[in-house]
Each structure stands twice: as structure tokens, then as C-alpha cells.
Design brief:
The chain has helices at residues 11-53, 78-102, 107-123, 134-161, 167-194, 203-228, 244-258, 263-293, 298-326, 328-347, 354-381, 388-401, 405-417, 420-425, 428-439, 443-449; strands spanning 65-68, 71-74. The protein has 458 residues and is mainly α. It has one domain: Growth Hormone, Chain: A, CATH 1.20.1250. It has a two-stranded antiparallel sheet with strand order 1-2. The relative contact order is 0.14. Mean pLDDT is 85; it is low at 1-5.
């Protein structure tokens, strides 16, 4: 690649252009993860499956069963079984996708292809109505898996378009862009859902249109990085024979054997599994804790969801600046300590105290965006050049394959104690374990072992 010899080094300008294009995919895919997976899909699927199961009032929790692949599953639990299945399936699929991506000179086309296929299946959720839940079951599983595949390519591109010094800044801005985009569409969709009578829509149609809007948003905004990003040639390919598909498998197996040579990378990955599981469970359990334990109504909970979404936008940018001064490693640790404080404070929140509940939500938003964005950028420094797809696939697959640990602990503690207060504070164990492994990590050693330059702030 030319650098403008005799005039100037144009690479920073090219990288800046690519980075601005790259941010838009965070904006694009966030619609699926916020509007669909986080908020609307589960209750709507439970309602549709409840009608099929013969529940008189399908809007209530339905314990009657529907049959899926010979299994009799409670209608109210069906959406959670489906997302869990997609999560586990992704843990097996993503590493193969990552190895394939590393050997390809068309990373952005992999990202776009998976994104558009995922958005197509997301759009099929519009046709889930009445008691026809089956199309929604197939669609959400395939959309979730394909969305994960697109993120493997997206994360791998981060390393192509940024230097080690730029990584935290770029990742933080991308994550902030995602929270802003996802929050804007979610605000519109929740407004349409809450005011469906005023605009002449049935409740079910308002949800279906919201699900469709997420698919259109995802597909439409993916066009921006596809048109503006450049493809990069693969580097440091593992020497294995066969077709591209066979070589991808060979590279994956070689990488899995060689991971013992990168103990710091493994240490971070294990720590990330714990603290990220704690984060995901807090977000998952927040609405249940607010409604069942603190006795808040839907309007407060919906407002809290949107507040966290928009505060997380600022939180990602704040942590990006924090990392520029103090380094990503320290900033992630500080974020984990903040999560510990949040779950302890949540234990003592009084019922129906909206200001205190919102204050905790603001704290969650600040550390949520920051810890996730910096985890992505810091992990990229621990990856050998040319293996980004595989390692980020393992990063995503391991996260997805263990994401049920926190919810299991939350459920067990509630069952034993009969209260959500000890259940929420029990999650502190995941943050303690995450901090334990991160404190055992030597970041400079890990970055050097991976063959990368150590940033000035770490």
C-alpha cells in the first residue's frame, strides 16, 4: 500500500476514513439487539405461543405447552429456550467463521453478507401473528446466529483500520454509536407501542412493525460501511493445505493448540467470561428486580431502559477518554469495581423510590458502555496479527456459551431465599472472579507475546 512517498504519510487519513465508516455497523446492528432481543421479542413470542397453547388470556404468563421438535415447552418459557439455543449454537459456529474470515481478503463482504442474511430472518418476525409462533422460532434463532457471525468479521476489521494507540478510541466511539442508534430506534418503537391506540394500530401490529423496523434499520445502515470500507489482505496465514474451507478448519485447530503460548490472552478471556456474565445478568434482571422487588410500573421501567441506553452512549465515550489517559487495562478494572458497588447499592434500594432507582440506572449506563467497549479493544491487543477472526470468534463464542451462568445463580438464590435482593447482590461473585483474573494478568507481557506494540497508556 502506498504511503504518499515524498509528500506525506497518508495512512492516518485512510484509517480515519475507514474508522468513520466502521462505526456505522455498530449503529446498524444495535437495532436488532435492543428492539428485538432485549425488549420486544420475548414478551410478544410468549403471547403468540400462549394463544397456540390455548391460554385464555395470552398476555398473562402461560404455563401450557407447545411442541417443538418433539419437546413440550411452556409457552411462557419458549422465547428464552430459543435464545439459549441460538447462543449455544453460536458457540460452535463462530470459531469456524472466524478462521474462514482470517483467510479471506473480503472481510467487509463477510460482515455484510451475514448482516443482510440476519436482517432478512429478522424481517420474517413480522409474520409471527395470531398463534403462528413457528416462523418466529426459526427466524430469531437464525437471525441471532448470523448476527454473531457478522460481528466476528466486524471485530476483526477493527485491527485492520486502527493502530494499537488508536484501538481504545475507535472501539469506544463505535460502541457509543451503537448505543445511540439502538436507543433512538427503541425510543421510536416504544413510543409507537405505548401510543398504538392513538395512531390507530392494534397492539400486536405495533410490535410487529417495530420488529420489522429493526430489520430494515439493520440492513439499511449496513450499506454505509459496505460502500465506504476497504478490504484488507490477510496477513500471517497459517500454512495448511486444501480448499479455503479446509484451510480454515486447519488454521482453527492449529490456533487452538498454539493458545498455550499466549497465557495472558487466556487469562483475560477467562476473566472476561466472569465479569461480562455478571454484566449481562444485571441487565437481564434489572426489569424483574424493578417490577417485582421495587414495585415499579411499566412506565418507570421503560423510561429506565431508555435512560440506560442513552447514558451508555456517553459512558462509552467517557471510558474512551479515561483509557487514553490511564490505559484500557486500568479502566476496565475500575469499571469492574464500579459494578461491584452497583450490585451492593441495589441490595438496599427502597421500594418505589424513583430518583434512587434512576441514579443506579445512570451508574449502570456509564460503566456498561465503557467496560464493553474497552474489553473489545484491549482483547484486540492480545491477539496475534492475522488471527483476529478466530480469536474474536472464541471471545464471542465463549461469552455466549457461558452466558447462562449468571442467570442460573440469580434464579437459584431467588428460589432459596424467596427474595430478589440477595439474588442481585449474589452476582458480585462474578465481578470478584473477573477482577481476580485480571489482577493476575501482565498486560505488557500479553501484548508483546502477541507481537503487538504496547500503547503508551496501558
Amino acid at each position: 500500500m502506498t504511503t504518499g512517498e515524498g509528500i506525506a504519510d497518508l495512512r492516518p487519513l485512510w484509517r480515519s476514513k475507514d474508522q468513520k465508516a466502521w462505526y456505522w455497523y455498530d449503529w446498524a446492528n444495535s437495532a436488532f439487539y435492543t428492539t428485538v432481543l432485549s425488549v420486544l421479542f420475548a414478551p410478544y413470542m410468549a403471547t403468540v405461543a400462549g394463544k397456540a397453547a390455548g391460554c385464555v388470556d395470552a398476555d398473562e404468563t402461560c404455563s401450557r405447552t407447545v411442541t417443538l421438535l418433539g419437546l413440550h415447552l411452556a409457552a411462557g418459557s419458549l422465547p428464552f429456550y430459543l435464545t439459549s439455543f441460538a447462543t449455544i449454537a453460536s458457540a460452535f459456529v463462530l470459531p469456524i467463521v472466524g478462521a474462514f474470515v482470517d483467510r479471506s481478503s473480503r472481510k467487509k463482504w463477510h460482515m455484510g453478507g451475514y448482516a443482510w442474511a440476519g436482517s432478512f430472518f429478522c424481517a420474517l418476525l413480522f409474520f409471527m401473528e395470531g398463534d403462528h409462533w413457528q416462523i418466529g422460532a426459526v427466524a430469531v434463532v437464525l437471525a441471532s446466529i448470523l448476527g454473531g457471525c457478522s460481528l466476528v468479521s466486524y471485530y476483526a476489521i477493527l485491527v485492520d483500520i486502527s493502530t494499537e494507540e488508536e484501538r481504545d478510541h475507535v472501539s469506544s466511539r463505535g460502541w457509543a454509536f451503537g448505543y445511540l442508534g439502538g436507543g433512538l430506534l427503541l425510543a421510536v418503537n416504544l413510543g409507537m407501542f405505548l401510543g398504538h391506540d392513538a395512531i390507530g394500530l392494534e397492539k400486536g401490529m405495533s410490535v410487529r412493525l417495530s420488529l420489522l423496523s429493526a430489520a430494515i434499520w439493520w440492513a439499511g445502515f449496513t450499506l454505509i460501511p459496505m460502500l465506504r470500507l476497504r478490504n484488507y489482505e490477510p496477513v500471517n496465514e497459517v500454512a495448511v493445505e486444501g480448499t479455503l474451507f479446509e484451510r480454515s478448519f486447519g488454521q482453527l485447530f492449529t490456533t487452538l493448540k498454539e493458545m498455550r503460548a499466549f497465557p495472558m490472552t487466556m487469562t483475560f478471556l477467562i476473566g472476561y467470561l466472569f465479569y461480562n456474565d455478571g454484566i449481562q445478568t444485571v441487565i437481564y434482571a434489572a426489569s424483574t428486580y424493578g417490577s417485582k422487588q421495587l414495585k415499579f410500573g411499566d412506565s418507570v421501567l421503560i423510561g429506565t431502559i431508555l435512560l440506560i441506553q442513552f447514558v451508555a452512549w456517553g459512558g462509552a465515550l467517557f471510558f474512551g477518554r479515561l483509557a487514553a489517559k490511564h490505559g484500557a487495562y486500568r479502566s476496565i478494572l475500575w469499571g469492574i469495581y464500579a459494578w461491584m458497588a452497583i450490585v451492593v447499592i441495589a441490595l438496599f434500594l427502597p421500594e418505589k423510590n424513583v430518583p434512587l432507582f434512576m441514579a443506579v440506572a445512570i451508574a449502570i449506563g456509564i460503566v456498561l458502555g465503557g467496560t464493553q467497549a474497552l474489553s473489545r479493544s484491549f482483547f484486540s491487543l492480545l491477539i496475534p496479527r492475522g488471527r483476529e477472526g478466530e480469536y474474536f470468534a472464541l471471545y464471542n463464542a465463549a461469552e455466549r456459551g457461558t452466558s447462562w451462568f449468571g442467570t442460573l445463580l440469580f434464579g437459584v438464590v431467588f428460589q432459596v431465599t424467596g427474595s430478589y435482593r440477595p439474588a442481585i447482590v449474589a452476582l458480585i461473585v462474578y465481578f470478584i472472579l473477573g477482577a481476580f483474573f485480571l489482577l493476575r494478568l501482565d498486560p505488557q507481557r500479553g501484548i508483546r507475546e502477541a507481537g503487538n506494540a504496547v500503547p503508551s497508556a496501558l
